[in-house]
Design a protein that fits this description.
Blueprint lengths: L4 E2 L6 H17 L7 H22 L7 H25 L7 H8 L1 H4 L4 H14 L3 E2 L26 H9 L2 H20 L1 H4 L4 H25 L4 H24 L10 E2 L7 E2 L3 H8 L1 E3 L4 H6 L6 H6 L8 H14 L5 E3 L2 H17 L6
Parallel strand pairs: 1-4, 2-3, 5-6
Helix pairs in contact: 1-15, 2-3, 3-4, 3-11, 6-8, 7-11, 7-16, 8-10, 10-11
């Protein structure tokens, strides 16, 4: 992995110019690159959507079938925590204070995930090697899904555009019971855990502890205070089906759609990428529904995925303004800027891309 390098021989005038313009924007307006009152308000809303229904169930205020509705609200809050809070915090863009970022990054642990595996899988691998099969785990071969034209193809992939959304709805359950543990084992084995400054034993114990506390809080305690088992089971399942579909779809619409390029490590001669890192991000990323304030709010600004990939250390509340600068600079340098105007257009493009990947032979280059 470390042997694969992006080009430095091409003058990256684009990113130097873009970075200078973005820095000037923050300096001229005398604002921080991190979160502000909008971020703190959103944090309050999303944490309340998750924890208030849970507290009301444990306090006996919500009982019976009403608990199912409570779990559904928690599903929305869980999604908001993942997309709008922990995501920025793990990038260090939530706050200019390190301990606040660290604290907010652990909100993913509170909803059953792992801040540790997320930072390596997302920050290190996905943001560096975007849409590179064999390195970007987001497009690895998944059970029943082929998300890259370089992936292994099975006969049932020809139907993946029909059942993909159902698979997405299972994503957060998979993270809790399987994916995080699998990634932790792999990262420990590959030396990524220690390379990124973490102790494999400590992280293993911490993961088991956090996930145990999660199951205790959202399943066992509700049962112990008298919530009917069927309400807990149905509510828990619906919470994760909703959150899995919500979160996974948002991420898929940014990279597995018409426009963005895909590649594989094996096609690069002598371990070098012909493009600079910034150009690579433009070629492999797409925005969607950026004119919708609602979509921007509920997606944590990840509909502005191009801006996020170019500036992951800038809080998402600033992306609508940053996007204007990025679009202008991209136009000045005659570079591509992939974008779908509406959410449904992006979703259709994603499903068409899945259909294409499900029927195409393995790409050789």
């Amino acid at each position: 992995m470390s042997s694969l390098k992006f080009s430095r021989s091409l003058p990256d005038g684009f990113f130097r110019t873009l970075n200078s313009r973005v820095n000037a924007y923050f300096k001229t307006n005398d604002i921080q690159r991190t979160g502000d009152y909008r971020m703190y308000l959103k944090t309050t809303v999303m944490l309340a959507l998750y924890f208030v229904p849970l507290i009301l169930m444990l306090a006996g205020v919500i009982t019976g079938w009403w608990a199912v509705l409570a779990y559904l609200l928690m599903g929305f809050g869980m999604s908001g925590i993942g997309l709008c809070i922990m995501h920025d915090a793990n990038h260090g863009s939530y706050s200019k204070t390190k301990w606040v970022n660290k604290l907010m990054s652990y909100t993913i642990n509170a909803v059953g995930g792992s801040s540790f595996t997320w930072r390596i899988q997302h920050n290190v691998l996905h943001h560096t090697y975007t849409n590179m099969y064999e390195l970007d785990e987001d497009i690895d071969d998944k059970p029943f899904l082929r998300l890259s034209p370089h992936g292994k193809i099975k006969s049932y992939h020809k139907f993946q555009h029909l059942y993909a959304l159902l698979i997405y709805s299972l994503a957060t359950v998979s993270w809790i019971v399987y994916k995080d543990f699998k990634q932790l084992v792999n990262y420990n084995k590959e030396g990524l855990t220690q390379k990124n400054g973490f102790n494999p034993t400590v992280e293993t114990i911490a993961m088991i502890a956090y996930k145990s506390l999660y199951v205790l809080s959202v399943v066992i305690l509700p049962l112990l205070v008298g919530i009917p088992w069927y309400s807990v089971v149905i509510g828990f399942v619906l919470m994760h089906l909703f959150s899995g579909l919500y979160i996974t779809t948002i991420f898929q619409l940014a990279h597995v759609v018409e426009g963005p390029e895909h590649s594989a490590v094996s096609v690069y001669d002598q371990g070098s990428v012909e493009n600079t890192w910034a150009i690579h991000q433009l070629l492999t990323t797409a925005n969607f529904s950026t004119q919708s304030k609602w979509v921007t709010w509920i997606s944590g600004g990840l509909n502005h995925q191009i801006e996020h990939h170019l500036f992951p250390n800038i809080c998402h509340v600033h992306y609508p303004q940053i996007a204007k600068i990025v679009r202008q600079t991209v136009a000045d340098f005659n570079l591509p800027y992939y974008e779908h105007e509406k959410f449904m257009i992006a979703l259709r493009s994603h499903l068409l891309t899945l259909k294409q990947f499900g029927n195409a032979p393995v790409a050789l280059a």
